Amino acid sequence: METLHVQTDTKQYPVLIGNKIITDLSPLIEELKPAVTSVLILSDETVGALYMDKAVESLKGLNQPVHTFVVPGGDGEKSFSNYYNSLTFALEKGLDRNSLIVALGGGMIGDLAGFVAGTYMRGIRFIQLPTTLLAHDSAVGGKTGINHPLGKNMVGVFHQPEAVFYSIDFLDSLPLPEIRSGFAEVIKHALIQDEEFYDYLKGEISDLSDIPPEKLSYILKKGISIKAKVVSQDEKEKGLRAILNFGHTLGHAIESESGYGTISHGDAVAIGMRFALQLSEELGDTNLHYKEISNWLKHFNYPSVPSKLDAERLLGAMKRDKKSTSGRVKMVLLEAIGQPYVKEVEDCTLLNALKKFLMTDKEK
């Protein structure tokens, strides 16, 4: 087991990475001060069927009551109704200000459970127990929230967990599309901060369905370390943390305009990264090897932009993104691999770039 530490202005907490480390969950809970009075494990139907019994079993030594609540699966379920239902269940079970929520699942559950914890009785503690590769990004950093029909992650709070338990054995059941979705965020971390890590990924990972445990552990550690370093310097996204949105401005627009759950978060971000790379080359007069990186992403079967989406529609969604200011779109671009910057881009420039990108994307 390896332990990383995330340090922000408001909290320091460990990220534990290893095989079958869920056995360490109960001892950590017992050490929390003030003492935990009850535990609520929040999960979705898919993950709950696989791992809820194991999670409950790991907590059987606690003297406090352990409750479980399951919501439907899928990013479309990161909704007001499931937020409300989770709060209602917590109230019915008598959770108090010293209770603890455990988020058992992928990014959707982590965001939902974290938001429930961050707002229940004005904030109670929670622990992330991620079960997807994608959650290596969402489980660290304290961003929590739910989707609104007009935009992704538009309602939420910053609420840091007490700990993150990344038990690698939970990834064994992931289908290939879920692995691909998570790997997109791994690529993002490499592109914005670490060219050597990018070279490692290109040289060492050729088949997403067969990543050896030692390489998977290394990938997780590197990705989490990169995010932790950024978050430690800018917890609430006032400046530097914005670079973590590389690929997300168009990615979120594609997700919302396609209908949440129609395209995976990672697939949408991969499209967004390709667009950001192409735009970076056009605006910065630099060679980022867009075609090479684009072909590499295509090798892993990342999709093209859904055919029903057009440039005007996507631009409208990008202007509604929470990172936009007064309707002006801010893009995370690259000067070089590992050297990101944020630039406000004029609507006409973005629209022309989107039209060009969609045209070339549909030709492939």
From TrEMBL:
Keyword NAD (UniProt): yes
Binding site for Zn(2+): E185, H248, H265
Pfam families with a match to the protein in the record: DHQ_synthase, DHQS_C
Locations listed in the record: Cytoplasm
Protein residues bound to NAD(+): T131, T132, K143, K152
Single GO molecular function: 3-dehydroquinate synthase activity
Family to which the UniProt record says this protein belongs: Belongs to the sugar phosphate cyclases superfamily. Dehydroquinate synthase family.
Function statement: Catalyzes the conversion of 3-deoxy-D-arabino-heptulosonate 7-phosphate (DAHP) to dehydroquinate (DHQ).
Protein's recorded name: 3-dehydroquinate synthase
Gene behind the chain: aroB
